[in-house]
Specification:
single chain, alpha/beta, Rossmann fold, binds guanosine-5'-triphosphate, binds magnesium ion
Length: about 280
Amino acid sequence: MAFNRLTKVLSRVKKIFAPVHKGSIDEIEEILLRADVGVKYTHRIIEEIKKSRKDPVTALKAELYKYINIPLPRPEDTAPMVIMVSGVNGSGKTTTVAKLAYLHLKNSRVILASADTYRDAANEQLSFWAAKTGVELVASQKGQDAGAVVYDAISKAQARNFNTVIVDTAGRLHTRTDLMAELKKIVRVVKKLLNKEPDFNLLTIDATLGQNSIQQARIFTQEIAINGLVLTKFDGTAKGGAIIPICQELNLPVLYLGVGERIEDLVPFDPRAFIDALFD
Ligand SMILES: Nc1nc2c(ncn2[C@@H]2O[C@H](COP(=O)(O)OP(=O)(O)OP(=O)(O)O)[C@@H](O)[C@H]2O)c(=O)[nH]1
Ligand SMILES: [Mg+2]
């Protein structure tokens, strides 16, 4: 993404750490807690700032970087690339799938799999986005087997040389074991057809929930091999500091930030640019 555009989109992230510029150590501690960094990491960070010989802003930036710079998944070099998106209800999956399609369209032939066969209007919602971006879609009907939809999408990709398959899945509470089994089934279908896990197995997390999102996210990571996070609704949230406990407790990198409801409102995550955006 062009640097200017990145800066512009990131400007929608709340500058939760701007007051640090003028803050005492006690005030910095309060700012971190208010931003939902959490007690554990706030204490660690404050200790490091006290020990550091750098100024507090530089020291804090270095600490933040340490916590959110997590190794990225390495996709296999075999087509089609598969991106699967799951998460709890309303966390922004379908919107993220549409945004990802828009991003990948520029240098790839993209096909969407509408594998949310649970909710009434799910297929309509994704069809709307597909039409808007002009991207190919394998539609579904309510009650249809989600694995079958993914099977069709991958088969179509293989037959017609699509190189990116993006899979939308049904929103599910992490406590619904039947729905968690369905996610595993989708993964099995991918494995069977392509002899690999989804290259990007993404979990959407609603950033406005802050640290409260961690427990439910953890269950997903125990069920399927999630390898990256998308923090949605990051525009305007005051709890953006929760990114630290989220990355650390789940031991997963953030790959994208959702910063609005429009199709272009998804930013590939760059830790340094992101940290700078929190300060000024
Ligand atoms: N402000 C803002 N709103 C977002 C963002 N991402 C998604 N939304 C909104 O959040 C709501 C839910 O988004 P969906 O994409 O339908 O969420 P979902 O996870 O697919 O929902 P279910 O399929 O019902 O589980 C919609 O109103 C979106 O416009 C974002 O980054 N910022
Ligand atoms: Mg959805």
